[in-house]
Design a protein that fits this description.
This protein has 267 residues and is of the alpha/beta class. It has ten helices and six strands. A six-stranded parallel sheet has the order 3-2-1-4-5-6, sandwiched between helices. Keywords: Lipid biosynthesis, Lipid metabolism, NADP, Oxidoreductase.
Length: 267
């Protein structure tokens, strides 16, 4: 029986060594935890480029600095105080054409990026359908377009949800056919205003409980037909709670959803 490889020899660590990563949703809870885990477990990463928009008077650089100051990174900070040097904010917005990337940033990503994690999404269950389509579906379309131009892309990971097919009783690890064509819904969303879409939302959702699950399912359908040429992986996390043990037990950056319920019950 062969011995377990130490972390320094693992295939995962070897794969990420000297790689450049492009990440969306890096300021959200899942994105923060992913960045921390990559930095802590794969110290040979060359660079992590995070799409960040200006928000509440803070520049992308200031928001990234605030992100790195989180206590989530205390474990890394204790052993490597220079970890922030490989985290690079890329100014952009998921809802802007081509993510609002500058020519310089786009060319840099096309030339240097090896791995893409697309984690950004609107997770509001009551989001108007027009907004949910623009972020959760059109955002995926833009990412496929960008990834298709990357010269050294080795992995494109799309973060979906366990509820992307919640209209079904049994869910397998496959991408299901959708009664709606994603492109046609995007075209409709371009010329229909929010009020018009709201009038037909319930009919479109059918057995889906909300616009979040509906649009995440549409995104998977789009990827199945338009990302066949890419090294694609789709992951479907379930309900997001606090960290279990690492890097610190019980870390959470907001009290929405189950985290808020658990916090209230424990008081």
């Amino acid at each position: 029986m062969s011995a377990v490889k130490p972390i320094s020899e693992s295939n995962i660590v070897s794969f990420f060594h000297d790689k450049n990563i492009f990440l969306t949703g890096g300021t959200g809870f899942v994105g923060k935890c992913l960045i921390e885990k990559l930095l802590r477990s794969c110290p040979g990463i060359k660079g992590i480029y995070v799409l960040v928009r200006q928000q509440k008077g803070l520049t992308p650089a200031e928001r990234t600095e605030k992100l790195c100051a989180s206590r989530l990174f205390d474990t890394i900070r204790a052993t490597n105080s220079d970890f922030t040097k490989i985290i690079h904010p890329i100014e952009g917005d998921l809802r802007s054409p081509n993510f609002g990337l500058s020519t310089h940033d786009e060319e840099m990503l096309i030339e240097k990026c090896h791995i893409v994690f697309h984690s950004a999404a609107t997770v509001r269950f009551d989001e108007p359908l027009k907004t949910a389509l623009e972020i959760n579906l059109l955002g995926v379309k833009k990412m496929v377009h960008l990834c298709s131009k990357m010269r050294s892309l080795q992995s494109f990971v799309h973060v979906s949800t366990a509820y992307s097919n919640c209209n079904r009783q049994c869910i397998d690890e496959i991408i299901y056919d959708n009664p709606f064509e994603p492109e046609k819904l995007l075209s409709a969303a371009e010329w229909m205003d929010e009020d018009m879409l709201d009038l037909i939302t319930d009919r479109l959702l059918n057995k889906f409980p909300n616009t979040y699950a509906f649009t995440k399912g549409l995104a998977e359908t789009y990827l199945a037909s338009h990302a066949k040429h890419l090294p694609l992986a789709i992951i479907r996390p379930s309900i997001i709670g606090s960290t279990w043990r690492e890097p610190i037990p019980g870390f959470v950056d907001n009290y929405m959803g189950p985290s808020g319920v658990l916090a209230a019950v424990s008081c």
